[in-house]
């Protein structure tokens, strides 16, 4: 196996400041496909000029994580794909370790790495080097064996963000597919900051809306409407109470955030699609 057996897919949204360090960590020896959820032609030209191994596809609308990655997966021809977030970074041996693990377990569906949050390579002597079979892995970095997805499909694109990787892993396991966590593979992830800082508040509102929408939809999909309602209803009431509380305190930002939480749950309860998008030019 070599770097031409894999395509790295990065789904981004106005993440120029975040994605450059990510791309620098990958280098120019591995095919990269960026799905940019906007119509930012300047960013596309910049990335493709900096990296001859990179193709940037502009979706021209905000497709979200699930649909954006599905678009990327539909465009590639390699045996493997590594899906990573724009705020993730590979280390020098990350790809090599993925390939080593893939050779040990050729029938794997997904391999997930050890999450790094302090940007320092961990002391391997402190790790159990044995790969662990798990039910799901985190979506910031997922190494996919594409042959294993033919009869399962990829992400459910009804999810905009949140729970889409858990849902995918659940469907894979239900179909007898193997998912592994390899604690010897290091990938850095700063977490919750795939976009640039200037749009933080709008993205925070979006995150709250979609977390609630996706929570209800996920439980409804796998356990039925009633169970989902029982699980999520306390959060629905909590959001209403906090809207009232922060309205009394005249805290408009908190009111906006908890209104988004309320709206996300309510729309999912009404079986409406995941329609909310951050209000960003």
Report what the structure shows.
- The chain has 281 residues and is α/β, with parallel strands linked by helices.
- The protein folds into 2 domains: 3-189, Alpha-Beta Complex (Spore Coat Polysaccharide Biosynthesis Protein SpsA, Chain A); 200-269.
- Helix content is 43%, strand content 19%.
- It contains 8 helices and 9 strands.
- It has helices spanning 16-26, 41-50, 64-75, 94-104, 164-174, 200-223, 225-248, 252-269, and strands spanning 6-12, 32-36, 54-58, 80-84, 88-90, 108-116, 132-133, 141-145, 178-189.
- Strands 1, 2, 3, 4, 5, 6, 7, 8 and 9 form a 9-stranded mixed sheet that branches.
- The chain starts with 5 loop residues before the first strand and ends in a 12-residue tail after the last helix.
Q: How far from one another are the termini?
A: 43 Å
Just name the CATH architecture of the largest domain.
Alpha-Beta Complex
Radius of gyration over alpha carbons?
A: 19 Å
Listing every helix as H and every strand as E from the N terminus to the C terminus, the arrangement reads EHEHEHEEHEEEHEHHH
Output the CATH homologous superfamily of the largest domain.
Answer: Spore Coat Polysaccharide Biosynthesis Protein SpsA, Chain A
Summarize the structure.
The chain is α/β, with parallel strands linked by helices and 281 residues long. It has 2 domains: 3-189, Alpha-Beta Complex (Spore Coat Polysaccharide Biosynthesis Protein SpsA, Chain A); 200-269.
């Amino acid at each position: 196996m070599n770097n031409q057996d894999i395509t790295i897919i990065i789904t981004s949204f106005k993440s120029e400041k975040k994605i450059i360090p990510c791309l620098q960590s990958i280098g120019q020896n591995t095919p990269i496909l960026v799905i940019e959820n906007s119509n930012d032609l300047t960013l596309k030209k910049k990335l493709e000029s900096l990296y001859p191994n990179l193709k940037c596809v502009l979706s021209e609308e905000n497709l979200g994580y699930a649909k954006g990655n599905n678009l990327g997966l539909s465009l590639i021809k390699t045996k493997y794909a590594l899906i990573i977030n724009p705020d993730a970074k590979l280390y020098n041996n990350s790809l090599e370790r993925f390939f080593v693990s893939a050779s040990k377990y050729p029938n794997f569906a997904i391999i997930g790495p050890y999450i790094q949050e302090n940007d320092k390579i961990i002391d391997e002597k402190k790790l159990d080097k044995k790969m662990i079979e798990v039910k799901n892995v985190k979506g910031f970095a997922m190494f996919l064996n594409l042959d294993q997805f033919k009869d399962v499909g990829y992400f459910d694109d009804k999810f905009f963000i949140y729970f889409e990787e858990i849902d995918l892993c659940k469907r894979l396991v239900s179909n007898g597919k193997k998912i592994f966590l390899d604690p010897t593979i290091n990938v850095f992830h700063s977490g919750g900051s795939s976009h640039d800082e200037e749009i933080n508040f709008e993205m925070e509102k979006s995150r709250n809306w979609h977390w609630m929408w996706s929570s209800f939809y996920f439980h409804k999909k796998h356990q039925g409407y009633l169970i989902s309602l029982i699980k999520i209803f306390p959060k629905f009431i909590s959001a209403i109470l906090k809207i009232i509380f922060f309205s009394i305190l005249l805290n408009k930002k908190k009111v906006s955030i908890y209104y988004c939480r309320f709206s996300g749950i309510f729309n999912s309860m009404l079986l409406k699609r995941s329609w909310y998008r951050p209000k960003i030019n």
